[in-house]
Write a structure and sequence with these properties.
The structure holds two protein chains of two kinds. Chain A is mainly α. Chain A has 25 helices and six strands.
């Protein structure tokens, strides 16, 4: 379908704004931060940068207590390269607050895969294929789950893979056509460097995809398809850019050399014939995360479409097709690294929809190619509409419900806890205090109060008060009062009477007390 | 099928900006507006000006400038923010990258 570029630009804007509407549902009615412990860490770095009006060089005490050793190359500094969190902090500066702005910027970043896949599909296979692929990715449940839990940079990093592959393809084509355009290689190099900054695992996905696509090109062309001089400049550019953050870049290198994943399927040949097998080392990940039907779509008619899409690419085998096949094969390799005892394969699994949805669309287009010419337009239009409607009904609706109902009630910081957080940030409680959170409903909740309050906290849900040299106790009845759990409230009151007789109350408001202990 | 509705580039850009502004205001109020347009300003604009000096299609320039901008712009902000105020670092980085785009354009002419 030919479409006016200006109309297309408006349609893409509407597509992406629809995506943002869905992905920001969790903060549209409740501005309190949410997510698991990882989310709190990302929020903390951005929030501290924003509220102190300075970039972080050495970690402040409360962040250091948890993440001080995460940079194995140089402890007590940022463990991720700073651009991702600095971007969130820039958003906070523009918004004048850490909560909604950080989450809004993150929603934009995490959903960039929609734009990236739209872009590559548009360039390779036209407007309809791009529009439907982009639309389906708005409802990719696995992406959304990880986004909600808090592996924010990982979500964003995957969006770079299609763009990196596109640049590589453009350069190779220009070289083979004797009209060399090294600018694509240099842009690829910059995108790879940014990809490295955002998340190392996604960077390794990109590298693997480049290796596989190069091999496929080499098999097809039977000759070199690049200029050594251009490649050398691109590598130097990449190295120069990543050297901007030596401590964090070296952390990635040292970690990737030393990390040993705990694998169950190592050496198991049957593993090679299944897309994924849940492992023992991913506790806390719900079973539905590993289900194709729950995460991607209805089994019986979407899988045949994926196979048709692959068949279409295999039969045609032009260079665009090889890029798509290379991307698929590289993902297969990354998801099967457990076979050799490597990788964080359940995380790699989350990139499945990025290639499966486009393949489904290509399968559909291939199917239509068998329709006699006179009926093709009508059948194609009808099939595409039916496909989108069915997919929306099966995957769109649960995604909407998930996003609308996520982290409700006491799973987020409640207003009483938020009052305490505000007080704590301004208080005289020393920055190197160790506060015991008695009445913690979960580790994640304590982590949020800890990171938002800028003071180190130890959750009563995971540690005993005597395990640490505690300076303060934060008696928190608020969550249990809000959920009406009187038994736990009684138990907490009893504990408070028995253990805090010698403490001095320094905060006493709305179901919360903070004691200073005499050490 | 050939959709032949003619739209001027400037009108299209205006419509897109109005759509983004409406979205930001409706769902996030003035805070959302400031965040989204602030991001477009600092992550996108300077790098679009830089990439505008190369032989790329408009779509490529738009996509690449944003994806590169969200990694490279904060990299400079971070290091400047170690020495000066973070807010000032954002402003200074913006000026530096926009200047680079303008200088490249002049140099190319």
């Amino acid at each position: 379908m030919k479409i006016n570029k200006n109309i297309e630009a408006i349609i893409v804007t509407l597509l992406y704004l629809s995506c943002l509407y869905f992905w920001t549902l969790p903060i549209q009615n409740n501005s309190m931060p949410y997510g698991e412990v990882d989310a709190a860490s990302h929020y903390a770095v951005a929030d501290y940068t924003y509220s102190n009006d300075r970039s972080i060089t050495s970690l402040p005490y409360y962040i250091d207590k948890r993440y001080g050793q995460d940079n194995v190359f140089k402890p007590h500094v940022l463990w991720y390269p700073p651009p991702f969190h600095t971007s969130l902090a820039i958003g906070a500066v523009f918004g004048g607050d850490s909560n909604v702005p950080v989450y809004l910027v993150n929603a934009i970043f995490a959903s960039l895969i929609v734009l990236a896949v739209y872009f590559i599909m548009r360039k390779f296979f036209g407007f309809e294929a791009a529009l439907i692929s982009g639309f389906l990715l708005i409802f990719s449940m696995r992406d959304i789950m990880i986004y909600l839990w808090g592996q924010w940079p990982e979500r964003m990093g995957f969006a770079y893979i299609p763009l990196i592959l596109y640049c590589f393809y453009k350069y190779c084509i220009s070289y083979l056509n004797k009209d060399e355009k090294p600018v694509y290689l240099y842009i690829m190099s910059l995108l790879l460097a940014v990809n490295f900054f955002i998340h190392p695992m996604d960077f390794f996905h990109s590298v693997m995809a480049l290796i596989v696509v190069s091999l496929l090109f080499l098999i097809k062309e039977r000759k070199l398809f690049f200029n050594i001089k251009h490649i050398s400049v691109a590598i130097i550019l990449f190295l120069l850019v990543i050297s901007i953050f030596p401590f964090q870049s070296m952390n990635v290198i040292v970690r990737s050399g030393s990390e040993q994943a705990v694998m169950t399927g190592s050496g198991d040949v049957s593993r090679l014939f299944s897309w994924f097998k849940p492992q023992k080392d991913n506790p806390g990940v719900p079973e539905s995360y590993f289900s194709y039907r729950d995460m991607i779509g209805p089994l019986y008619w979407t899988i045949p479409l994926i196979f048709l899409g692959v068949l279409f690419l295999l039969l045609r085998r032009n260079k665009k097709d090889l890029v798509m096949l290379g991307w698929l094969i590289s993902l297969y390799i990354m998801i099967h690294l457990d076979f050799i005892g490597k990788g964080r394969v359940h995380r790699s699994l989350s990139a499945t929809a990025h290639i499966f949805y486009p393949l489904m669309v290509l399968g559909l287009i291939y199917l239509v190619s068998f329709v006699p010419k006179g009926y093709k337009r009508v059948v194609k239009g009808l099939l595409m509409i039916l496909f989108v409607v069915f997919m929306f009904m099966t995957v769109g609706s649960p995604v909407h419900t998930t996003l609308e109902n996520t982290y409700q009630g006491v799973s987020r910081v409640n207003p009483h806890q938020y009052d305490l957080i505000q007080w704590l940030r301004q208080s005289d409680v020393p920055e190197n205090s160790d506060i015991y959170h008695m009445g913690s409903i979960s580790l994640a909740k304590t982590r949020w109060i800890w990171m938002m309050g800028h003071r180190h906290m130890i959750s009563s849900s995971v540690a005993n008060i005597n395990d640490y040299n505690i300076t303060h106790v934060f008696m928190d009845y608020s969550d249990f009062v809000l959920i009406g759990d009187q038994n736990t409230v009684n138990g907490l009151q009893e504990w408070e009477k028995q253990n805090l007789l010698n403490g001095t109350v320094i905060y006493d408001r709305n179901y919360i007390r903070v004691y200073e202990l005499e050490n | 099928m050939n959709l032949k509705i003619k739209l001027d580039d400037k009108i299209t850009m205006g419509i897109i900006l109005v759509l983004i502004a409406l979205f930001s205001f409706i769902f996030f109020g003035f805070v959302g507006f400031k965040v989204i347009f602030g991001m477009l300003l600092v992550f996108f604009l300077p790098f679009y000006l830089i990439l505008d000096n190369f032989n790329l299609s408009r779509g490529e320039k738009i996509i690449f400038s944003f994806f590169i901008g969200i990694g490279i712009f904060p990299a400079l902000v971070y290091w400047l923010g170690v020495i000066i105020s973070f807010k000032l670092a954002i402003a200074l980085s913006f000026i530096l990258f926009v200047s680079l785009g303008i200088i490249l354009k002049k140099f190319k002419k």
